[in-house]
Amino acid sequence: MSTNPSRSRTLRKSTGKSVLRSRARLGVNTAAADESASRLIDGRIGELGDWRGETLARMRALIHEAEPGIVEEWKWMGTPVWSSNGIVCTGETYKQVVKLTFARGASIPDLARLFNSSLDGNVRRAIDIREGETVDADAFRTLVKAAVERNEQANVKPAARKPAPDASASAPVKLLSGGNPQIPKGDGDAPVQAYIAAMPGWKRDVGRRLDALIVRNVPGVRKAVKWNSPFYGIEGRGWFASVHVFTRYVRVTFFNGIALRPMPDGGTPKSGESRWTDIHEDNFDEARMAEWVKQAAALPGWVP
């Protein structure tokens, strides 16, 4: 079938005008689209002018504290988005709530139980914040870091995600935010020892001492690495503790820490049943840690 060149040019011109008219009907501001996402988010916070703007600004600051290199985006005609190897979370504002939706929330640990919305899905989880409510800052930063690490894991090629045969493998282990080693998920002692071997500086010695202390006080302890953290538990009873590296300390989290005596000082009522203690270079109280470990191992554990 022959084609009329003149008619084709007319159709292309008409189609282009239709696209522009459609964008105008949808409210797409082409000038605003050229502005940076950060300026658009600033504008959203400013135009809200109430508790929702203050809340969104506060949570935005915590996101950047948790992951300074995170990228701000503006998607879906007006939604603030924070990304690192994919979407970490979005920030939507409604009349009664500010909603922070984590794209992979169902697969990251929420030890402080911050998620209170979208709990039935297999992928996303959300935090709904209402007027007058606050979110535990430390727990939220930890959640953001876990989400960033989950995205990094999802972008690793399957072949590269296989555990190294031993901790002395030649390829250096990547250190994530705060110096936490990136170790593939795995059950058993081997991935835990790989994690400990990759802990930076004085923290490596703390990791070895912690691991030996737990093995000594909990016969038959079960080990694994999940979400770039060593987990310790009892077969059939769940996990009682985990270890995570931060910039200035090593954090030991007890999943039923609220029942320990004395109770560890890390965490708040919003942290649920979890409580934690932070070990700095010069404050590792092994006697107290041994008591906590023995108590925790005797309590019901956390089952993901």
Task: Describe the protein in words.
By secondary structure, this protein is α+β, with helices and mostly antiparallel strands. The protein is 37% helix and 20% strand. It has helices spanning 5-26, 30-33, 37-48, 51-66, 137-154, 189-198, 202-217, 286-298, and strands spanning 71-75, 79-83, 87-93, 97-102, 125-130, 186-187, 222-226, 229-234, 238-245, 250-254, 275-279. The protein is globular and about 60 Å long. The chain starts with a helix and ends in a 6-residue tail after the last helix.
Structure at a glance:
By secondary structure, the protein is an alpha+beta fold. The chain contains eight helices and eleven strands.
**Can you give the mean pLDDT?**
85
Spatial arrangement of strands, main beta sheet: 6-7-8-9-10-11
Structural class: alpha+beta
Q: Cα-atom Rg, whole angstroms?
A: 24 Å
Largest sheet geometry:
6 strands, antiparallel
Number of helices: 8
Secondary structure: number of strands: 11
Helical content stands at 25-40%
Uncertain spans? 1-34, 166-170
Q: What string, H for helix and E for strand, traces the elements in order?
A: HHHHEEEEEHEHHEEEEEH
Oligomer: single chain
Gross geometry: globular
Give the distance, in angstroms, between the N- and C-terminal Cα atoms. Answer: 63 Å
The fraction of residues in strands falls at 15-25%
